[in-house]
Write a structure and sequence with these properties.
Blueprint (H helix, E strand, L loop, with lengths): L8 H34 L26 H6 L18 E5 L4 E2 L4 E3 L2 E5 L10 E3 L4 E7 L7 E8 L6 E12 L6 E2 L4 E5 L10 E6 L11 E2 L6 E2 L1 H7 L8 H15 L26
Antiparallel strand pairs: 1-4, 2-3, 3-12, 4-11, 5-10, 6-7, 6-9, 7-8, 8-10, 8-11, 11-13
Length: 285
């Protein structure tokens, strides 16, 4: 009679080795998946978000709200545009995710530029953000969690009456408020992470709109909507090689107002031909 297979020590040893090998392969696959997941988590950066865009609630949609007649009347004429971070020519910064780039994870095209310090990671955390041009602050707040702190400034384009807006998102700090007039190059906040949603960077947009655009998607499946290419805007309307005169005069008037002493009711009238300035137009209300 043939010996039963389970009494054959060679067959038993072979089956044992095969089973051990199968378990080892399964463990390797599981470890690999875990390592990949950890790698994804550890490298989460400005190119993707912790969640797809569709899962982020848009609990505020002010993009449907038209700017008021008062806002439209107060929007000043810009004398040109400059980069909002780094130097005026964006030295020490780079565009980490270009305008119009497709982001599969977020499910759409990038509607702005992600400006990041050359050191990468969070090396630019807290760095100042400047107004790209003279304008009127039409939004300063947190439209929803995925955006973090956002500032939106409305401008009139040089040489025309066209109104556009620049948007500054994921800020760590906001230093301006709605209704405030700002000069080109004025500090309006600092680079942040949208409360830890991303590595530090500035999401910067240029928008052709007469609506309040804060809170609209930073990615869009149908293209870039009413967004303009910020680099092309700055190239088409470069700021003059000087500080914004409006901002300089405003600063001087603030200093003058702070140091002013009450004048006598019998003070001499101004010399004929003197240009009278109204400090209230320069002071931050």
């Amino acid at each position: 009679m043939a010996k039963k297979w389970y009494r054959n020590p060679y067959k038993l040893a072979f089956l044992g080795l095969a089973a051990a090998g199968l378990v080892a392969v399964c463990c390797l696959f599981a470890a690999g998946d875990g390592a990949a997941a950890r790698a994804t988590d550890s490298t989460e950066n400005i190119y993707s978000a912790n969640e797809p865009l569709s899962t982020i609630p848009a609990n505020v949609m002010p993009g449907l709200i038209l700017l008021s007649a008062d806002q439209l009347a107060r929007i000043p004429l810009a004398d040109g545009f400059q980069w909002p971070v780094g130097t005026r020519s964006m030295a020490m910064m780079y565009d980490a995710q270009p305008f119009g780039a497709m982001n599969e994870k977020r499910g759409g095209y990038h509607t702005g530029m992600d400006l990041n310090g050359i050191g990468g990671e969070n090396t630019d955390m807290g760095e100042p953000v400047f107004a790209a041009a003279r304008g009127l602050v039409v939004y300063s707040g947190i439209p929803h969690e995925g955006w973090g702190n956002v500032v939106v400034i409305a401008h009139r384009l040089p040489g025309s009456d066209e109104v556009i807006q620049t948007l500054y998102a994921h800020l760590h700090r906001r230093d301006v408020r709605p209704g405030q007039l700002v000069g080109r190059g004025q500090n309006i906040g600092s680079i942040g992470t949208a409360n830890g949603h991303y590595l530090a960077h500035l999401h910067f947009e240029a928008i052709s709109s007469l609506c309040n655009e804060a809170g609209m998607p930073g990615y869009h499946p149908q293209g870039t909507m009413n967004r303009l290419n910020p680099a092309e805007l700055i190239a088409a309307h470069p700021a003059p090689d000087m500080a914004d005169p409006y901002e300089q005069v405003r600063r001087l008037m603030i200093i003058e107002a702070a140091n002013a002493t009450p004048t006598s009711a019998t003070a001499a009238p101004p010399t004929p031909g003197t240009i009278q300035l109204n400090p209230s137009q320069f002071l931050q209300k």
